[in-house]
Design a protein that fits this description.
The complex is a heterodimer of chains A (328) and B (162). By secondary structure, chain A is α/β, with parallel strands linked by helices. Chain A contains 12 helices and 9 strands. Chain A folds into 2 domains: 6-100 and 150-182, Rossmann fold; 195-319, no CATH class. Helix content of chain A is 28%, strand content 13%. With 162 residues, chain B is α/β, with parallel strands linked by helices. Chain B contains 6 helices and 4 strands, in the order βαβαβαβααα. The longest helix of chain B is centred in the middle third of the chain and has 18 residues, at 78-95. Classes of the chains: A alpha/beta (328), B alpha/beta (162). Chain A binds chain B through residues 72, 75-76, 79, 82-83, 106, 148-150, 152, 156-159, 269-271, 273-275, 277-278, 281-282, 284, 286-289, 292-293, 296, 299, 301-303, 306, 314-322, 324-328, and chain B through 48-50, 52-54, 56-57, 70, 77, 80-81, 83-85, 87-89, 91-92, 95-98, 133, 135, 138-139, 141-147, 149, 151.
Chain lengths: 328, 162
Amino acid sequence: MSTKPKVGFYWCASCGGCEESFVDVAEAILDLAQLVEFAIFPVAMDFKRQDVEALDDGEIFATMINGAIRTSEQEEMCHLLRRKSQVIIAYGSCAYSGGIPALANLVSKEALMKYVYEDAPTVVNPDHARPQTETLDQGRMATLPEIREMVRSLDQVIEVDYSIPGCAPNPKLVLAALQTLLSGERPPKGAVLAPNVALCANCPRIDTKPRELSVKAFKRPHLHEVDPDTCLLAQGFLCMGPATRSGCGEACIRGNMPCTGCYGPVDGILDQGAKILTSLASLVEAHDEAGIDHAMEAIVDPVGSFYRYGMAKSLLRRKIDLPTPVAR
Amino acid sequence: MPDTYQPRILAFFCNWCTYTAADLAGVSRMKYAPTTRVVRVMCSGRIDPQFILSAFAKGADGVLIGGCHPGDCHYLEGNVKCLRRFRILQRMLVDLGIEPERIRLEWISASEGGKLKEVINAMSADLVRLGPLNLPDALRSFDAEVLKEETEAEVQELVTIP
């Protein structure tokens, strides 16, 4: 029986990019594999739920869970992994703050299901069939998890010890976090394991950011040529750098695209969208209503721009006039 | 909804103008709807959209911001900064299901006690028409559908005989 600490890597509502980022730890993963043993890793290794259930409580040293939470099955697995793990790490934007899946909190579950199973142009479904949680088929009951009314971040479902944000997280942060934990050091509970400074502080274009930034009209990057060396805000592009946590390695900026805010806010911010809105709207040059509105015309979807990764963790959490979840 | 419904308005008033206007309305014994709770800020430019979202999340039916007329800001341009944030915030709140009437920005100078009275009365009437927002109850209900597991402390409580 191995005495190596056990590590888990589980996914909920996610795209698989977080697993990619874990593999991007590259050759260092071999050193890591010497130090730890995997207890569950659905994307790469064959473990079943029963294997986790067979473990003692707290037997897994640390489990990284990625993806937002929307189904009853994801909730069950998270509770199970919480029980079996000493440390739970919310891995990636979706587990940390809802991520892209949490933008579904802007529509009702009914509207979502209707589109996916009836109205989408590629769907043929004359019987209006919808997935059921229980279906009797040839005398046997087939079951499916229930889809909840809302998308949640991991810490809205189970207790989370640490978070590594990012879409996807920077492999360097992941490696550093695991090395820290394996060394026996425990950062304060609830810590976000990424630097507590805004992206602008580490931006390779910081020297071209004017002291007094002012924007005549915001621009959308697919409609204009983007200068590869100048501060994106100085060019008028909607860059979330001033209100987004650093740690990503500024990959988007280096790829000549503005920051979209995937690392979430720095410590102490209650609402990422409100903060991004504040920092960007304040840059507008115009003084009158018409001029201000014109300058921000290119922000066609303020919620989608400011809360692209943070809807579930925002103060309002969802569009507020949707049907409320039914108590179990 | 009972017809006695009184909306709750959280007001952020600038120290240099609207707060003084509220003072003037008071000493002038003007009567207006008792719907407003005032927070004095040094400038409307100090108002972070987080304050407004928190106000709604904690039970406000509306948020009123009072600042100096453009050109009169004690800090030159704080009120213009507020206006820039307000225009996009109001648009964003509509997308989040909050009616535009629930957030209002007015320029009210220190001498305009009468305007303050009219603005509060008009906003109160708008909010009575819209009815309560009641976000705290909604937020509490959001997680009612989630699978719960007893925390260790609760389990201990269950197994410990007092």
